[in-house]
């Protein structure tokens, strides 16, 4: 048999085993509905150990996310909540880190508007490939924008690339639905994808 074929089959088998193990670990970590710093560190060690033998984008993406959380040696409540939600979606089987939600299922502005930053008010919701929400906010503040929660003064709502088809029922769905309602009533609020926003940075 072809050596490349055997390598691919063995690689697929290894990746499948890694994902099954990661699902089991994740379920154990979130079983009590919360996650603490020691659990985040444990997850990082497992991901680091499996990184070198995995071509799976999910493992690489999750490792980068966890490494960013631990970079400042402080795991704050927002970071715990975001990681908990990520692991919950992953273990529910309806989420793949690295898989971008089809834009057609989101109420994005069509056509997507040109974005500017100086004097604009931005709101970010969801989970981002760019980094944690605070990193996204810092990127626009550096360019002269303001950031905050969703209000009638918000001019741009950016939706993170990592999401599920059931976004309406997610923790960030209410922000999106509120923005859609205000946009429909005539308020000048743009709803854009993270991918579109990143092209303007």
How is this structure best described in words?
- This protein is of the alpha/beta class and 201 residues long.
- The chain folds into 2 domains: 89 residues; 97 residues, Rossmann fold, CATH 3.40.50.
- 49% of the residues lie in helices and 7% in strands.
- It is built from 7 helices and 4 strands; from the N terminus they run ααααβαββαβα.
- The chain has a 4-stranded parallel sheet with strand order 2-1-3-4, sandwiched between helices.
- Helix 1 crosses helix 4 and helix 2 crosses helix 3.
Q: Can you tell me the CATH architecture of the largest domain? A: 3-Layer(aba) Sandwich
The count of helical stretches stands at 7
Largest sheet entry: 4 strands, parallel
pLDDT averaged over residues: 80
Residue share in helices?
40-55%
Strand content bin: 5-15%
- CATH class identity of the largest domain: Alpha Beta
CATH evolutionary superfamily of the largest domain: BRCT domain
List low-pLDDT spans: 5-11, 94-104
Per DSSP E runs of 2 or more residues, the count of β-strands stands at 4
Q: What is the string of helix and strand elements?
A: HHHHEHEEHEH
Count structural domains.
2
Radius of gyration: 19 Å
Strand order, biggest sheet?
A: 2-1-3-4
CATH topology-level fold name of the largest domain: Rossmann fold
Terminal-residue CA separation: 49 Å
Class from helix and strand fractions = alpha/beta
C-alpha geometry: elongated
